[in-house]
Design a protein that fits this description.
The structure is a single chain. The chain is globular and about 60 Å long. The protein contains 7 helices and 10 strands. α3 packs across α4 and α6 packs across α7. It has 2 domains: 128 residues, Cobalt-precorrin-4 Transmethylase, domain 1 (3-Layer(aba) Sandwich), CATH 3.40.1010.10; 98 residues, Tetrapyrrole methylase, C-terminal domain (Methyltransferase, Cobalt-precorrin-4 Transmethylase, Domain 2). It has a 5-stranded parallel beta sheet, with helices on both faces. A 5-stranded mixed beta sheet has the order 6-7-10-8-9, with helices on both faces. By secondary structure, it is an alpha/beta fold. The longest helix is centred in the middle third of the chain and has 20 residues.
């Protein structure tokens, strides 16, 4: 029976990888990671220089692009086959396999789809990681929540009407998967009167990090690793004069 270790890599800075994940990565003889076809992959880039010289690398290349609507039956069928095939392949490998996962594996991570298919078939160990949004709100230099603030995590892929609804219900907002959905996110924030309070953090904790007020952004071209934040302002002790 194979043993699968999923190593959470954190938000992007290799120094933020946990000691346990670091140990698993450096000792791994077989390393698997997700990536877009033709790309090196963010997970692989984070661990550059950490792999042993004789490590065997397995690049799990996504079979779809952003041109296919995420809620289409075709999209779901293609991805389901992709995860099934890789679950079968990983389960058949001898010994231990380390699967790399950006952020935390159980927080919107692709590994979750393998995990549900491998349960009961192989031994698994999932190592937590710092989430990407945690790295981003620390990069902003402003606490994301105070006191009894309610924080909502939203996917920018949601319909605009749903974004507006959820934005009105929460004090603090984290909006992920922005990319080409950024114009829709801006319109929704403007509708609820919160655009001026929104921040855009691109590649949080990485060398190319950029932090700016969303209202000051001149274009709508943002990378996949970009998160929009609206900080809460809940109860807090007053600062003494």
């Amino acid at each position: 029976m194979a043993r699968i270790i999923c190593a959470g890599l954190g938000p992007g800075d290799p120094d933020l990888i946990s000691v346990k994940s670091d140990r698993a990565i450096r000792g791994g003889r077989t390393i698997a990671y997700f990536r877009k076809a033709g790309k090196r992959g963010q997970a692989r880039q984070i661990v550059e220089g950490m792999l042993r010289a004789d490590a065997v690398e397995l690049a799990m290349e996504y079979p779809v692009t952003t041109e296919i609507p995420f809620n289409s039956p075709e999209y779901n069928d293609i991805l389901a086959r992709f995860y099934e095939e890789w679950a079968e392949r990983l389960a058949s490998l001898p010994g231990e396999v380390v699967v790399l996962c950006e952020g935390d594996p159980f927080f919107y991570g692709s590994f979750m789809h393998l995990y549900t298919r491998l349960q009961g078939r192989v031994e698994m160990d999932v190592i937590p990681g710092i989430t990407g949004m945690t790295g981003c709100w620390n990069a902003s230099g402003v606490p994301i929540t105070w006191g009894d603030d309610v924080m909502t995590v939203l996917m920018a892929t949601l319909p605009e009407v749903d974004l507006v609804h959820h934005m009105r219900q929460s004090d603090a907002l984290v909006i992920m998967k922005t990319g080409r959905n950024l114009p829709k996110v801006r319109r929704a924030l403007e509708t609820v009167g919160r655009l001026d309070a929104a921040w855009l953090v691109e590649r949080g904790t990485m060398p190319q990090q950029r932090v700016m007020k969303l209202a000051d952004l001149q274009d709508n071209d943002t990378p996949y690793f970009a998160i929009v934040l609206v900080h809460g302002h809940g109860r807090r002790p007053e600062i003494a004069e």
